[in-house]
Amino acid sequence: MNQIVQTKSYETKKGEELLHEKIRILKDKARKIIEDIAHARSFGDLSENAEYHEAKKLQNKYSAELEQLTQYIKNLHVVESHECDENSVSIGATVHILDCDTEKKKVYKIVGFYEANVDEGLIFYNSPLGKVLFGKKLNDEFEFKPNPNKDFFYKIINIAYDK
User: Fold this and answer.
1) CATH code given to domain 9-78
2) What is the pTM (predicted TM-score) of this model?
């Protein structure tokens, strides 16, 4: 079993809800697997019973995932907007940035791991861009270097938190 590091995890309220939904789905799958194992056992000899062995593999997989998520929740802190400095980028902030070269505007929301979705502009606070944005203030200019060959220069033009 993988060693679990005991560090604090952060999520928004929405991230916490997504995490609990993932756990609910895994528990439903685990219950179904128990039924599948019982059904496979009814066929008799388990040594050559592919259905049984596959169901046991899935049971172990779901159990490990549930244990990992349970540990994550034990170390979870749900960040509320009132905890954050409204003038600084933190978890839950919607950040409007301006590309200093192209004048193109982009909007990102800084979130926890379980809510992150780059395609929707939901950036994990511990991702490369999340780390660069974290703690920045209104009108701060910063460089983001996603790879060694490209630099982007941005300015923070708005920071907002859900109320």
Assistant:
1) 1.10.287.180
2) 0.79
